[in-house]
Specification:
With about 375 residues, the protein is of the alpha/beta class. It has 13 helices and 14 strands. Strand 11 and strand 12 form a beta hairpin. The longest helix has 21 residues. The protein is globular. The protein starts with a strand and ends with a helix. Bound molecules: nicotinamide-adenine-dinucleotide (NAD). The site of nicotinamide-adenine-dinucleotide (NAD) has 19 residues, from loops. Nicotinamide-adenine-dinucleotide (NAD) binds next to loops.
Length: about 375
Amino acid sequence: MESLTVPYIKGDGVGPEVTSAMMRVIDAAVAKAYGGPRRIDWMEVPAGGSAYEKYGTYMPDSTVDAFRQYGLGIKGPLMTPVGGGIRSLNVYLRQTLDLYVCLRPVRWFKGVESPVKHPENVDMVVFRENTEDIYAGIEWEAGTPEAQKFYGFLRDEMGVTKVRFPETSAFGVKPVSREGTERLVRAACRYALDHGRPSVTLVHKGNIMKFTEGGFKKWGYELAQREFGDAISSGRLVIKDCICDAFLQNVLLKPEDYSVIATLNLNGDYVSDMLAAQVGGIGISPGANINYDSGLAIFEATHGTAPDIAGKDIVNPCSNLLSGVMLLEHIGWDEAAGLIYDALERSFAEGCATADLARLMPDGRVMGTREFTNHLIGLL
Ligand code: NAD
């Protein structure tokens, strides 16, 4: 018997519903694919609102340690604590575990309504840098002594004269490093080669932010040439770049030109959600946060806790489920992953889905979360 322990965070709001659906479908697919010798031992670890009520902390150290110990995990959506302390539980996990890639594959399933004419041409994998950029959280509120002190440093030490309204300005710092860029672009290039994908596009705003985003582009090209020069010269891998605003336009007009995307934190945030919308929205888009050096990977639903629909048996579990499928692929259990892709394709093709998707389908049949989960298990 080959069993694998997977720590999981149930999540807040709709979290318990999507987590239960994900585990049921994955268990059934693993049983079907391997007929018994393989099994996942799910191990719940506390986080979020329920952890706060029980342990007085939103993210107990034992939870972070469990992810470290087992080298992988999966999480449902978590509420964002209001007030001081941790700003965002997701950002906390990414930073504490140095999960430097936010991986977001974006593909379309036949039958799912899309706002674009040819969603079948959208097939991209976004590598978003997770630890740097304006998301580093280095900022000072307008009117505070810290903001004034920072402005004083800019003015007196750095000779900066371009702050338009210094008295009422807030300030943020955008660190972008060569190391941070290189490990992200390296992971994107390796992924492209391992998965037979033709190109990596560096998406940046280097025309305006010349040293940060421009640095990303320059270091990215240099790294690719240095470490993947053979693949580039033999034509197996194309490295190109695109300015982010043009990229957002191009992926609507000619998405087939893009395959693997490597980009900075803020661009990646926008790009991932926009691409997700092209294939059916956040209810169906999976994600993962990965450190490709240590191998540590946490898979996650990309939507929030959806408090407006929590407990109503209507949430779409596909984002969390497809994150679980990414986990299966990560550990090499591709047969089980394939069964779930097939079941989803068949379900959507016959119009069976949760309300968010089914009500947009011409002959859609609305199913509750549990009914849809049972339906998928039946299709495995
Ligand atoms: P949200 O994603 O929870 O909800 C936005 C809208 O989309 C809502 O109308 C919701 O009903 C709908 N929706 C979301 N997921 C759905 C699904 N799977 N099926 C059907 N409908 C779905 O975003 P929000 O309302 O801005 O945030 C709520 C809370 O979640 C906040 O505390 C926020 O900070 C947190 N959040 C967490 C994560 C995460 O843990 N990864 C991500 C985003 C937001």
